[in-house]
């Protein structure tokens, strides 16, 4: 089987395989002449194009998602996308490529070429990870402690800073941070936006990356056309996905949501109500990291209301990074939100997956959603901000 697998890896076009599976390449980031392709990952929920296929020869490519960490050859892609064992994936690809058998010398040459290509791809991955971490460290060194603008922004998003003792130490302020379309985009003379930003440290203990939100006193910063300046993450690829922004030390329980602001708003409300004694807070930064690995085919066992539970393949949980509570934490309060991308049903599916993932590992886990409704186009920060505006005294 080893020789056949090398033939398949070297002969099948991973790019075309991904396209047939519905992957849509990002033309702004891809370089077709170099066989360098980027797209949103088909294996986890994301908005950015962090799924990378390197295939300069037109076949024999490798993929790696710099978000969820999945990587491999065409065989690995079929295993992940179709949820089949390795032998079945190999059989399907060999059949579709018309590969039956090949003489030993030709197979050896293909295996050698494949090994060289894989080594080159892994070296590029390691270099990219190192560059990402150094960039994150550089940005963090440029920040300063939270000041009036960051405090005003968080207050406008419904965060009760007085209840939680001020802005968490993991959040700092950058007075004039550049926002580029794709890193430092040399094709543009200037960045898309330069302005004040909230910079969050990603990781428990050691810094593995930073999350950036461009802000104004009344809310998110906006581009000239009125669109919000997009949030950005950068750091050590392979380690950043699933690592949280730690907003407080978790005690017996942790309040966890996708975003920083909605998590802070819900946690500060809990503290204000006198119920925060056992609860810390963390932001998971993405629904995919919060929910954990799901069935790659979108099938599998269903939970309440028919929504899919985590993948029946336990190996995914070990190989794919995702958020889990810190050591010593026993319970999690998971924050759902009807304003998530994909609408209320998608949000409920992710939240239920997160609850089931934690329950299967022995944690107490409960889901809360704003207003108790998944069809409410709001998160906890939106509701807290609206309530603060409603009760604010007239000036």
UniProtKB/TrEMBL annotation:
Residues 37-94 form the Zinc finger CHC2-type domain. The keyword Zinc-finger applies. Keywords: Metal-binding, Zinc, Zinc-finger. The keyword Zinc applies. It holds the Pfam family DUF7146. One of its GO terms (molecular function) is DNA-directed RNA polymerase activity. Residues 292-313 are annotated as: Disordered. Coiled coil: none annotated. GO terms for cellular component: cytoplasm. Signal peptide: none annotated. Gene3D superfamilies: Zinc finger, CHC2-type domain. It comes from the Bacteria. InterPro entries: DNA_primase_Znf_CHC2, DnaG_primase, DUF7146, Znf_CHC2. GO terms for biological process: DNA replication, synthesis of primer. This is Zinc finger CHC2-type domain-containing protein. It comes from Amaricoccus solimangrovi. The lineage of its organism: Bacteria, Pseudomonadati, Pseudomonadota, Alphaproteobacteria, Rhodobacterales.
